[in-house]
Amino acid sequence: MNKILVIIEKGTDGLFSAYTPETKSTVLNGQGNTVAEAIADMKESFQEVIESYQETEETIPEELQEPVVFEFVQAIHQLFFVVKYRLIRRGLSVSPKN
Predict the structure, then answer these.
(1) Coil, strand or helix at 85
(2) pLDDT of residue 59
(3) Alpha carbon of 80 to those of 20, 31, 52, 83: distances in Å?
(4) Of 19, 22, 85, 91, which alpha carbon lies 20 to 30 A from 9's?
């Protein structure tokens, strides 16, 4: 079973991106208005890459051979802002102590 790391980030334009920074043969990516849409778009990209290899009768790189499991991780800086936002909404201080 091949595990592929997928990073999820929210861009400054408000769209979510899903991409695979560690794949050597190709970078899979997707984009959407929600995390779910970005993941679905990235999975569609994966299917298109596999179909392309099959159509050209090229060998599918080992890292892309099934079964493949995607491991989704949201970018740390995004999580920081989500936590900070939630703390502020609850009236808690987020300033570092000197």
Answers:
(1) helix
(2) 95
(3) 21, 21, 38, 5
(4) 91
